[in-house]
Amino acid sequence: MTQKLDKTSFSKLLSFVLRHDPGSIGLTLDRGGWADVDDLLDKAGHQITRSELETVVQTSDKQRFALSPDGRRIRANQGHSIDVDLGLLAACPPDVLFHGTVQKFLSAILEHELTPQARHHVHLSPDTATAQSVGARRGTPIVLRINAKAMHEAGYLFYRSQNGVWLTDHVPASFLMPS
Ligand code: HQG
User: Fold this and answer.
1) DSSP assignments along 83-128, one per residue
2) Which of 32, 51, 91, 93 sits 20 to 30 Å CA-CA off 151?
3) Which H helix or E strand runs over 66?
4) Domains plus CATH for the chain?
5) Which residue ranges have their beta carbon within 6 Å of ligand 1?
6) Is 70 exceeded by the pLDDT of residue 1?
7) What is d(CA 13, CA 18) in angstroms, rounded to the nearest whole number?
8) Single pTM value for the model
């Protein structure tokens, strides 16, 4: 009998497979990071139905996933460590963006820069509340303020993912603003 997964567990499985390791279930993504939905459901062992998958996509608190307009393909909106090209266009960021982190990373960040670590980009939030919750995943959150306007004017590129996360390659410490 096929084992069923609750929606949170399936969302975590989806994040892992679509962002980090599609090969773990024998799935292949195209260059844009898209997977065939039927293939995904099949390779995930039919632990979830198509309509449950659609509910996971629609109700994901951070809108982590997108279905193609015809509903036949799915991809993660951001957060990848594998090499995909989301086709995002550079955009003009708000004047200030925020990054949630924790104390143990602070000295490395302040001495050097914010770096993407395992992901493609540094993830920046448009508001402090979101940055707080990002940092809180790791402990007591520290919210850094980034002078995105100055970075943009200096030629740094910014991208806005489909779910409203701002992405950039790195943030030199000189663009961090006092909070
Ligand atoms: C830190 C979640 C040492 C950085 C969230 C962060 C977000 C450094 C960690 C999304 C550093 C990387 C991304 C440096 C940065 N030295 N540490 N030079 N530069 N760091 O998870 O931004 O739920 O890759 O501060 O909500 O925490 O997955 O990035 O603490 O939107 O959809 O290195 O992931 O979304 O951690 O989170 P991450 P993040 P999902």
Assistant:
1) -----PPB-PPPSEEEEEE-HHHHHHHHHTEE--TTSSSEEEBSSH
2) 32
3) strand 65-67
4) 7-76 (1.10.10.970), 96-177 (3.20.170.30)
5) 15, 62, 64, 79, 101, 105, 108-109, 112, 114-115, 117-119, 123, 134, 138, 165
6) no
7) 8
8) 0.89
